[in-house]
Amino acid sequence: MIRIKVLVCGFTLLVMGAGSAYADDFGKELYESNCAACHGDDGTALLPGTPHFSRGERLEKTDAELMESIVSGLKIMPPWAGIMSEKELEDCLAYLRLLGPAANSNSSDNGDDED
Question: Domain 19-97 carries which CATH code?
Answer without folding.
Answer: 1.10.760.10
